[in-house]
Amino acid sequence: MSRPRRTDPGNDRPLGPLESAVMNALWEAPGPLTVRQMVDAMADRGLAYTTVMTVLDNLHRKGWAERDLAGRAYRYRPRTSREEHVGRLMAEALSSAADQQAALARFVDAMTAEEAAALRELLQRRGDTDS
Q: What GO biological process terms does the UniProt entry carry, in alphabetical order (predicted)?
């Protein structure tokens, strides 16, 4: 059971700790945020405006965030959902396993009963559409 490596040319570079924190704040926001709004949303970290601006610019350059000019300020939003990102990470982790079946077995063994039921349902639905 071999699967080709998956890559996303838009955001395949790993995130640093501060970039991850900013992405989490973007994912949790109800809509696009300006740099000032992001500084306010992350006030507990005590980040300077220029630091947040640089991180958001880097996330845009790396393809993690999109931005639109609104007046004189950019509004930033995630390029993909957190769930798409996590799904991509899971697929990449699986593709890197030497024994993908064993990796899947360990993953399934670690699931709660609710997670396993959700997976069964998803696989059933996928089976229904593959026919």
A: negative regulation of DNA-templated transcription
Report CA dihedral (74, 84, 20, 96) to the nearest 10 degrees.
-140
Q: Which domain holds residue 108?
A: 82-130
CA dihedral 73, 79, 81, 85 (to 10 degrees): -130
Token representation of residue 5: 């490596």
Asked whether residue 22 is domain-assigned, the answer is yes
Is 0.85 surpassed by the pTM of this model?
Answer: no
CA atoms within 13 A on the CB side of 70: 12
Number of domains in the chain: 2
User: For 73-76, which contacts have Cβ atoms below 8 Å and span 24 or more sequence positions?
Assistant: 73/34, 73/35, 73/36, 74/34, 74/35, 75/32, 75/33, 75/34, 76/26, 76/32, 76/33, 76/34, 76/35, 76/38
